[in-house]
Specification:
heterodimer; A: 191 residues; Rossmann fold; eight-stranded mixed beta sheet; 5 helices; globular; B: alpha+beta; four-stranded mixed beta sheet; 4 strands; 15% helix; 27% strand
Chain lengths: 191, 96
């Protein structure tokens, strides 16, 4: 089974680390580069600063655990989405904005590719893991809204990523599609 | 009858509600303010909750695991965004 993870930032990079023992082939998609400020909330180490995030995550998986993955250091857009999703059995959305999520959803639906989304509130108090058939992308309240770049939301990022990794694990095991809602009071399965 | 789940300031709780499942989002937000103020939602009692506390929150209507009607009132989850690619009109599919 091949799983494509779209967006290898806070949620994506942490989820990838938690999926290292799943025995699936991972494809990592991200156009962005690791900056030193990302180290506070994303699963990257100092030597990865300056590298493309998909490539950095691929290298860390290989160096830390011998886990093989494929890196696609590009921006996912409408005209390359089919190529990036080609050969995959599951897509995972860890993008940080509604436009990207919608591009991915449209491409996955067109191919009838299962897609699970993960998303975090800007204030770091709440998050969702939800399958595409029940998901509508939220837009930020204001352009440029603060993000999780500081380390203060890292525990919540870890919780959401763990819930997402569990959802992926369940799907890989028997095709189950479970949703989760993550708040400061815990993780609840909602579907 | 529906179950209203309210998430506010990181806390989440259920409330059994005598409400039409298709009640408007505005009604759901208004009722949520009232029940949180009244202490009717276990673990979420805020007597001085502002009337506009849930403005901008999202209302999801989903079926529960046993087919029950559930209404979720929750914060938006855009995962922050901002910085170039995420801005409306920037035309990019960015990732963080």
């Amino acid at each position: 089974m091949r799983v494509v993870v779209c967006g290898v930032g806070a949620l994506g990079s942490t989820t990838v680390a938690l999926c290292r023992s799943l025995g699936v082939e991972l494809r990592l998609v991200d156009f962005d580069r690791v900056e030193s400020k990302n180290l506070a909330a994303q699963w990257f180490v100092k030597p990865s600063v300056g590298k493309n995030k998909a490539e950095a995550a691929r290298l860390q998986l290989a160096n830390f655990w011998g886990t093989r993955a494929e890196a696609a250091p590009v921006r996912l857009v409408a005209n390359n989405a089919a190529q990036l999703l080609d050969g995959c059995d599951l897509a995972v959305d860890c993008f940080d904005n509604a436009d990207s999520r919608n591009v991915l959803s449209e491409a996955a639906r067109a191919r009838q590719l299962p897609l699970v989304h993960a998303a975090l509130a800007a204030d770091g108090t709440f998050g969702l893991v939800r399958w595409d058939e029940r998901f509508v992308a939220d837009r930020e309240d204001v352009a440029g809204q603060a993000t999780c770049e500081g380390g203060e939301h890292l525990p919540m990022i870890g919780l959401i990523s763990a819930a997402l990794a569990r959802a992926i694990q369940d799907f890989v095991k028997d095709g189950a599609r479970h949703d989760y809602m993550v708040s400061l009071s815990g993780v609840a399965r909602t579907g | 009858m529906a179950i209203l789940n309210i998430t506010y300031q990181g806390q989440s709780a259920d409330y059994e509600l005598e409400i039409d499942y298709q009640a408007s989002d505005a009604d759901v937000r208004r009722i949520a303010v009232e029940v949180v103020r009244s202490g009717g939602v276990r673990g979420l009692h805020i007597a001085g909750l502002r009337t506009d506390a849930f403005d901008g929150f999202v209302v999801d209507r989903l079926r529960g695991a046993r087919g029950e009607q559930r209404i979720y009132l929750r914060p938006k989850v855009p995962f922050g965004a901002g910085e170039g690619a995420a801005r409306p009109g920037a035309g990019g599919a960015g990732a963080r």
